Amino acid sequence: MSETFDAVVIGGGVMGCATLHYLAELGVTDTILLERDTLASGSTGRSMTILRMHYSNRVTTEMAWWSRGVMANFEDHVGAPSGYQQNDWLLLPGPGNEEPARVNVKLAQSIGVETEVISIDDVSRRWPYMQFGDSECIVWEGKAGFADSHLVTSGFANSARSRGATVRLGVSVREILYEQGAAIGVNTDEGNIYADRIVLTTGPWTNVLLDQVCDPLPIHTVRHQVIRLQQQEGFDDIAATFHPIVVHIPSGLSARPDTPGYALIGYREDPVDRDTYNQGVDTEVAAEGMGILADIIPAYVDATWASGWSGLFTVSPDWNPVIDHVPGFENLVVGAGFSGHGFKMSPSIGLSLAELVTGSKETTFDLHPLRFSRFEEGDLLKSAYGGNVFA
Ligand SMILES: Cc1cc2nc3c(=O)[nH]c(=O)nc-3n(C[C@H](O)[C@H](O)[C@H](O)COP(=O)(O)OP(=O)(O)OC[C@H]3O[C@@H](n4cnc5c(N)ncnc54)[C@H](O)[C@@H]3O)c2cc1C
């Protein structure tokens, strides 16, 4: 059996579903999304879903800010709830990082983000139940927050479906089909599907399909552990139960409130095999993460470890994604390498991939910094903090 569509999107994570939605927004509705498992069954469903705008590069700052507008008004844009909850966001840069923090804040302010560098005295007055260790200053964002990854993913998919798109689950793409230098469709375990345009959003598994046509992307997978905590007596202060989202640069730990009475910690980036990694939480990692959080919010000293999971970051050499045509193919585009911070940008990524694959003359965002060839050219994006910091 074979079928034909205008466009096929491979992978039903948040990026594939966002692309399907924005294809429909651009008037392309004869589309099909193929997902081998269920929607959001990859990295998306395991995400901490934190939305913030603090980045070292203009393109990612702009994408995060624009996307935040979509997430916060998802009903208007997509016709469904996103589970968005606005929250303050505090970055503890640690010693020696005041200058990069100020540079990034200036960049974000220049595009309208509500953010400031705050002195330890000021921040301690506002959040008296928190401690800020050896950071010389704190970065604050007022319009950060988090959303629900399943609501966002299914919201995008349903918006496209209501305009004619097909979403097919339990179908695995085995290879992309080519003829005379053009991609013409995909071979699946249920037969061939032909399409004029193909979008590859298969997260950690991107190179499995890409390897057949070009050099693989230099991406690898790391395991990020998420520890879910139950708050105990120390949280009798109502304000503290919905405390700000916290990111601690020296340890790489992030934390946010979850459903009432609970919080999530995200911690560690350990290289693992994408198909065999341990999806649970290590006891010693949970203890270490809870200790770091209790140093920042001492009421967590009595918190109990309720549950948790691990998920995969698909990491590129500069911890930023590739949003581009696959080299040599005008009708095949790829979005991959989100390096643990893609969820917040998913609306802008979906829009960008839809624009690229439909041949838009101008894209909404300047995608040049996110091009495929930058690794080969040695023109990597840089973090103001240096090293493997996804900001
Ligand atoms: C623990 C954790 C915490 C995170 N926290 C945050 C955060 O706080 N903020 C933030 O912005 N980002 C965060 N992220 C990152 C964010 O979740 C990811 O960047 C984003 O979900 C990537 O989405 P994706 O659609 O590219 O990939 P995925 O969600 O992995 O989707 C890829 C899909 O492709 C499917 N697939 C693969 N191969 C095939 C095939 N051959 N045929 C058919 N289907 C196929 C898979 O089954 C999968 O469903 C976090 C990630 C993790 C793991």
Number of domains: 2
CATH class of the largest domain: Alpha Beta
* Number of distinct beta strands: 17
Q: If classified by CATH, what would the architecture of the largest domain be?
A: 3-Layer(bba) Sandwich
Q: Kindly provide the radius of gyration, computed on alpha-carbon positions and rounded to a whole number of angstroms.
A: 21 Å
Secondary-structure element pattern, one letter each: EHEEHHEHEHEHEEEEHEHEEEHEEEHH
Bound molecules: flavin-adenine dinucleotide
Structural classification = alpha/beta
Q: Roughly how much helix do the residues carry, as a percent range?
A: 25-40%
CATH topology of the largest domain: FAD/NAD(P)-binding domain
Q: What is the residue-averaged pLDDT?
A: 96
Total of helices: 11
Determine the CATH superfamily of the largest domain.
FAD/NAD(P)-binding domain
List strands and helices in order, with pairings.
Blueprint: E1 2-10, H1 14-25, E2 31-35, E3 50-51, H2 58-72, H3 74-78, E4 85-92, H4 98-110, E5 115-119, H5 120-126, E6 137-146, H6 149-161, E7 166-169, E8 173-179, E9 182-188, E10 191-200, H7 206-210, E11 220-230, H8 238-241, E12 245-248, E13 253-257, E14 262-271, H9 283-296, E15 304-315, E16 322-325, E17 332-336, H10 346-357, H11 374-377
Parallel strand pairs: 1-2, 1-10, 2-7, 4-12, 10-17
Antiparallel strand pairs: 3-6, 4-6, 5-6, 8-9, 9-10, 11-14, 11-15, 12-13, 13-14, 16-17
Helix pairs in contact: 1-6, 1-10, 2-10
Bound molecules: flavin-adenine dinucleotide (FAD).
